[in-house]
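Worked example 3. Consider a protein that binds glutamine.
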Amino acid sequence: MKIGILALQGAVQEHERALDRLGASHVQVRLPKDLAGLAGLILPGGESTAMARYLEEYSLGDEIQARAARGMAFFGICAGAILLCTEVDGRSGALGLLPASARRNAYGRQLASFEENIDTRLGPFHGIFIRAPRLEPRAGTEVLAYRIPPHEGDAVLLRSGKVLGASFHPELTDDDRLHRFFLELAAS
Ligand code: GLN
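Given these inputs, the predicted complex is written out as structure tokens:
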């Protein structure tokens, strides 16, 4: 089983290291042909507007959507999750594979970056947030992690079928549970 990491822009290496630790083979994805034979694709954090532009320029978006329809798994982190959402800041999202809305940079200047423990379906997790979007699930999407008190309620990890979107950065910790969970999804 091979996993692709979208390598147009943003934090790619940290995901390569996580997959290495889990013994999963991986390739960097820049062109539509790079998607051949992949069970899953990680869309890393970075700048979603820049990445959305590249997706269009390299005709990658259409190919990703076609592969999604055939069962490929996706894990979007922060900007990557924004690319997956059906709605972004009140408009249609770039890929529209995760029924959810994203509000970019929603935690404001003071909280541009923060770290806190979060409550995930896989147990407590250290959440690292960097200019994170606020994610809201739409019908059919489940919430796998929430911020805890005093910020309880905000969804920070969403899942719809084989599509996962996180507003925090699991690749910046050495806790590989979410990558492992994604590998299981991709293999299913
Ligand atoms: N703020 C970025 C965006 O809107 C996301 C930041 C990140 O990926 N860490 O695309």
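Take a moment to read the result before moving on. The mean pLDDT is 96. Residues 45-48, 78-79, 82, 104-105, 130-131 surround glutamine (CB under 6 Å).
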